Amino acid sequence: EEYVRHEASRALRFLTDNKTISKLTSMLTYPSSPLQLEGAIRAIAETEDPQYASIVASFAGDPNSAVRVAVAFCLGKTDPITNIRLLVRMLTDDDWKVREEAKRSVHKCIQVPDVEGEIPRQPAGKKMPAVEVEQIALPMLKEAYANGKIPQADALLHFCKGEKSIPVLLDIYRDKKSHPTRFEYHDRMGKL
Question: How far, in Å, CA of 130 to CA of 111, rounded?
Fold first, then answer.
């Protein structure tokens, strides 16, 4: 059932006439169910049109995790740079699927420095320096770790690998509470 919905949303991207877009945006304004809302958000994502990112971003706090996953997916396809703070905040979600989709979306907009002599690994386009993402993620990492939210801290660690993160990473490493058994948290993705 989920596969069919995803394929339908992909097919809708080719129907970019005003009537279809109008119907999709009205589904965002007046959704009849979380399932319909998720489908509309995924269909809008397939258009890759950034003009709908702000309305989609308003659903980031939806109680349904499938809707939040669709929001992270859509923002990653439509306008990840503008919504980077929200996407990084979504890395602290309690649902692992939301964190994983947000992580993919954040990775899409990070500028990876080219190594001399290598073929660029990223397509051209608007990218954000990793150090800027680190500045956004670092305070959230401190907060997540302090509150014992280890899976969320783990998701944020992917973006805290620069010089500014070293003092925080050392504090976490030296913390007596961070004995290795503390990290034996079992999430749906497995053992952390």
Answer: 6
